[in-house]
Design goal:
With 296 residues, the chain is an alpha/beta fold. The chain has 12 helices and 9 strands. Strands 1, 2, 3, 4, 5, 6, 7, 8 and 9 form a 9-stranded mixed β-sheet that branches.
Length: 296
């Protein structure tokens, strides 16, 4: 494994690379509040099967940095998708297996839906991760609403201050609630939590959870992408979607199957919560290899 950095127009993206440079490309994205260590066990398994596995820190996490102080610290879905596409371009990757969960899964879904010619296959935690912002004010069931407490807190300045003052406390609370059967230790958490010290972490997170409810404007640079996502485009690339049966923030996505056209398979990881690749690294790696076989 090597840690590297590549420059795009907007970001200096830090990433980990596993496997031979000539291997078939596989790009995996982490979620909130996690980091690249989510793939510390899964990535080597995939690399051993001949892949060049690339795991970038998202904007606002770890060593990834904005190149200009004047860039809006946006966490909107279009920005995440644009970052993934720019990452591929900067590394000269024409097509790749893409995958992820939570924010990283959303970026992979955006690229798969809008730029399918760049994607060989998709592994998506929680299936169709593209937000339907136009319907963001439609209420869900009481248990689902209760699970989103942190998002609503981030909508006001009390939430911003809370996250700024206690990033680790918030993240650990969410890890515990979202993966109740995952017995992670202090060292595992602290290794990831260092990524939350990024100076743009709070701004990006707060913007993300306000933008998805149409409470703040997005970055005009991504308006065209957001407009295309508003149509809720189907995903046509070969896809394996994954849920954990003990996910404390997502109750399951079987109903998302209608958003996929072509090869589609949904898997449920037993006793797994939200951080799917770190909780079930071998099963996640198997899904990556299986979707590549399906694509071929």
């Amino acid at each position: 494994m090597q840690q590297k950095t590549v420059a795009t127009d907007v970001l200096d993206i830090a990433y980990r690379e596993y496997g031979a440079p000539a291997g078939w490309p596989c790009i995996l994205g982490h979620g909130f509040p996690y980091d690249v260590n989510a793939y510390a066990e899964a990535a080597p398994i995939i690399a051993e099967a001949g892949a060049r596995v690339l795991v970038p820190w998202l904007r606002g996490y770890g060593p990834t940095r904005f190149r200009s102080a004047g860039t809006l610290r946006s966490g909107e879905q279009a920005a995440l998708g644009a970052d993934l596409l720019a990452f591929m371009d900067a590394l000269g990757i024409e097509r790749a297996i893409v995958g992820g969960y939570d924010w990283g899964g959303r970026a992979a879904c955006v690229v798969s839906a809008l730029y399918p010619e760049r994607v060989i296959g998709l592994v998506s935690g929680n299936s169709y991760n593209i937000q339907n912002i136009a319907r963001a004010m439609e209420p869900a069931s009481p248990p689902e609403e209760a699970a989103l407490w942190y998002q609503y807190l981030f909508h006001n300045e009390r939430g911003r201050r809370a996250l700024e003052r206690n990033r680790r406390g918030f993240a650990r609370q969410l890890w515990t609630m979202w993966s109740p059967k995952w017995a992670f230790d202090d060292a595992t958490f602290e290794t990831a939590a260092a990524s939350f010290d990024n100076p743009d972490f709070v701004d990006v997170v707060i913007h993300s959870y306000r933008h998805r409810y149409a409470l703040v404007a997005g970055d005009p640079a991504y308006a065209a992408i957001e407009a295309r996502l508003a149509a809720q485009p189907p995903i046509r690339v070969p896809t394996i979607a994954i849920d954990g049966d003990s996910d404390g923030v997502n109750s399951g996505t079987a109903h998302h199957a209608r958003m996929f056209e072509g090869y589609f398979e949904r898997r449920v990881f037993k006793d797994a919560g939200h951080n799917l690749p770190q909780e079930r690294p071998a099963e996640w790696a198997r899904a990556v290899l299986d979707v590549r076989n399906a694509a071929s």
